[in-house]
Design a protein that fits this description.
Elements: E1 4-6, E2 19-25, H1 28-37, E3 41-46, E4 67-72, H2 78-91, E5 96-101, H3 110-115, E6 120-121, H4 129-134, E7 138-141, H5 146-152, E8 156-159, E9 181-182, H6 186-198, H7 223-236
Parallel strand pairs: 1-2, 2-3, 4-5, 4-7, 5-6, 7-8, 8-9
């Protein structure tokens, strides 16, 4: 059966090989990683990130960081996560921190709510990730594709590991590729946020061009249309079923 594949989120070199008749990928990063997974079969097109189209024109233009989002998932141990948040809220009282657990993270966060009443919260089940990022000037997280979405919106994104599992260290390669800055200790993390609180560059989003093929091109913000056009062309070229 002829099959078309549309990339949903960031990929890693641990994915199954790309073996579809048509693969619509977000950018060169995805193609390079899939080439490490095995032979790439079928037609491949780079279309950008359709789900980001409606948000790219609303990039963060704040010259300094005042609001910091913290994203976590089940791979981030609650102990180190709590310690980091306690440290950040104590060291940077002038900043507003908002924690956003992954929608599949069913852990009990009530003790953390009581411990840090100044900490704000975002429900991933009720608030779209882009809407969440539009309310932030910076993001702190470990291994999550939210780093890419944040950078696209010119939100200063910092990779910080709450756990020590060596198998997930920079899983998507964001830090190695220079998409985001890396902090290796609470002190480094606080210093990075202080630096961004003094000045946040207006062109951070350009770092995402390797991941989003339409960034900086006439097709920026038109990835959905490009995806639909390529799918239509592919379908029209298929022979009618007998």
């Amino acid at each position: 059966m002829p099959t078309a594949y549309v990339q949903h989120a960031s990929v890693s070199a641990n994915f199954p090989p790309l073996g579809f008749d048509l693969s619509l990928l977000e950018g060169q990063d995805a193609l390079d990683k899939y080439r490490l997974c095995g032979p790439v079969q079928g037609q491949v097109e780079l279309v950008g990130m359709p789900k980001a189209d409606a948000y790219l024109a609303r990039r963060n233009t704040a010259p300094a960081v005042r609001r910091v989002g913290v994203a976590c998932n089940i791979h981030d141990p609650l102990g180190p996560l709590t310690e980091a948040l306690v440290y950040l809220l104590r060291e940077l009282p002038e900043l507003t921190f908002t924690l956003r657990p992954h929608p599949s993270d069913g852990r009990d966060f009530e003790p953390l709510r009581k411990l840090l009443p100044a900490l704000q919260w975002s429900s991933a089940r009720q608030e779209n990730v882009f809407d969440f990022l539009l309310r932030q000037d910076a993001l702190v997280a470990a291994d999550t594709s939210t780093h890419l979405e944040a950078t696209l919106l010119n939100v200063a994104s910092i990779y910080y590991r709450f756990g020590t599992n060596p198998l997930t260290d920079d899983y998507y390669g964001y830090a190695a590729q220079g998409l985001v800055e890396r902090a290796n200790s609470p002190t480094e993390l606080a210093e990075a946020l202080r630096r961004y609180a003094r000045h946040k560059p207006a062109d951070l989003y350009r770092r995402a061009a390797y991941y989003n093929a339409t960034l900086g091109t006439p097709d920026e913000g038109r990835s959905q249309l490009r995806t639909l056009a390529l799918l239509n062309q592919w379908l029209e070229a298929r022979p009618l079923p007998k």
